[in-house]
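ZP: hey, is the beta-D-glucopyranose complex queued? I don't see it on the tracker
AM: it wasn't, my bad. submitting now with these inputs:
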Amino acid sequence: MKQLMTIAFLLLGVSALSAQPRIDQKARERAAELVSQMTLEEKCTLIHGVKDGDAVYEDGFHIQPVLRLGIPAIRMADGPQGVRNKTNSTYYPCGISLAASWNREVAGKVGEGIGLDARARGVAIMLCPGVNIYRTALCGRNFEYYGEDPYLASETALHYIEGIQDKGVMATIKHFALNNQEFDRHGVSSNADERTINEIYFPAFRKAVEEGDVACVMTSYNLVNGTHASENPWLIRDNLRAWGFEGIVMSDWTSTYSAIGCFGSGLDIEMPRGYAMNYENAKVLLESGVIEESWIDEKCRHILQTVIAYGFLDNPVKDESIPEDCDISRANALAAALEGPVMLKNEGLLPLKKSRKSIIVLGPNADIVPYGGGSGRMDPIEGRNVTLYAGLSRLGKGYKVELMDWKAPDYEKIRKAGAVIIAVGFNHDTELENADRTYSLPDGQDALIASVAEANPHTAVVVYSGGEVDVRPWIDKVEALVMAWYSGQEGGTALAQILSGKVSPSGRLPFTFWGSLEANPAYPNYFISKPYGQRTAKRYSQYPFVEYNEGIFLGYRGMEHFGVKPMFPLGYGLTYTDFAYSDLSVKALDGGYELSFVITNTGKVTTSEVAQVYITALDSAVIKADMELKGYEKVTVAPGKSETVSVFLPASAFSHYDVSSHAWVNDAGKYRVNVGASALDIRLFREISHGEE
Ligand code: BGC
């Protein structure tokens, strides 16, 4: 019965909510009318979280109410792995796992689940997704984000946002912008040129605004080219608003540094409280003529027109008909967990044959459900977390699974086991925001893997992390390596299905796995370039900075340019089958190209392949990366069968950002269109003359 009610809600809910949750003229006018009735003090209440002495909304996750005018308190909660803040809820695979699925539908399903979970709890604004680009493995928050490629990140974000917002909940894309390291995040200036910013670091935000109609944007802690993001009119006004963004710009928590900077930059709401944008400061700045009241009105309008567009001025956010532990959310968490893991090495150990009767599972992450820490952490629902050991134990007949204490391994037993699975990696204490992480696995895990593999070569390593780790100490000694990321409450179920062969792995790397920190061309540009000077808010020139000297040649885009080869390229991932690519055709359509090709499963098990489309400019006057990802499609193919895949490349795929006109420019010329299974495994290609007579 409960289940039926949920389904009924979902059917009704979707059609009712997805009708038009957008800012329109009516919403703008109603917001303006309300603002005209507000006192200065009320307006200043709206533009920051928590008021001193406020016992009700003291959690720092509310837009404050103005009850006199019927403006309710609006609750926010963190994502992106689920709904956090004073609640236990469904725990989904983390961002890097969604990107590794290379499956738009999977991102949409997680968004849908989070939207439902939010409605069930009365949360109107979800503080996700995070889309900061992966520059090196060290960033403590890579796990929350979508990898190194702007197109993959944009597509993943777009579908995740649509999933949330279709449930009538506002999504918040964060952290705008260039927050690509956690070390000294309040103090460091990310310095990059305009083309690099537009081609690599802006696209996910821009697509979320232009195509995803995202409701909120959160600024970042860092400075961008010398000015803090929350106080940066170039970011907020000249870019974000110029893309047509009419929603709410909020600061990250305590990422404000001066009153005038916040009032003047275009920031709408300061979180979690009014350190800078408060009534007292407003009065002083207004009296001295430094700011104008219309600037404050504009902020209030942005907030209210968004709240109005989502219906929250008139209707409650909380939907009692959705259970907090929702069937659909759980199913979506499992669906996503099945597609994220990436198998990087397999010398035949996987899938675990039934003949390998005795399997030993050990390691720090073998019998817990690890998760990344900080604001992205989760408090799961009691009884819902499935550990890797639990998942393997449930495989049933044919498998005898034993959990071993990794701190006291019994090497005699290990020697005799059919297979050994070591679950290693990071967790919420070792990979989290406000700190960068080590490249090496923590806590002596390298030594553990090496000694276990020495005792039994039939060893598979399962790594939980937000990105690349140093595998050199043991990769040649083990037979299999699977990157599990942080795979949510159903991670154990999904990994057991993958390791046992019930499901073939189908994740692909969403970043370049260099094999060493130093091989990554961004590495020398990751650390602070300028020594610390004295810091004051007024003297930005004193801030330390990181120069993004690799420019547009980030990740796989730098392979050719810098002459470096990675251990595993972008888009790489093994399966339990093989695919053949054939019959590429390229037809001009609407200024772009319709590609069609055939993928044949030449192996023995049904598996999904991720077909990737990269373009190469052959005679460009403008310097470009040798390979740029412009399309991808994930298709499931039964053994011996073929599927025809279509990918559309719009004209915009052949453009670059021109710094003199401050716009994207379509580049006519010769291109090679490459179709392949990774950035280094091109199976089909065709040369075309784009935009030439
Ligand atoms: C994080 C944000 C988060 C906020 C609220 C900050 O520390 O950077 O991503 O949404 O806290 O928890």
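AM: back. The pocket of beta-D-glucopyranose is lined by residues 78, 127, 174, 252-253, 375, 433 (CB under 6 Å).
ZP: great, adding it to the tracker
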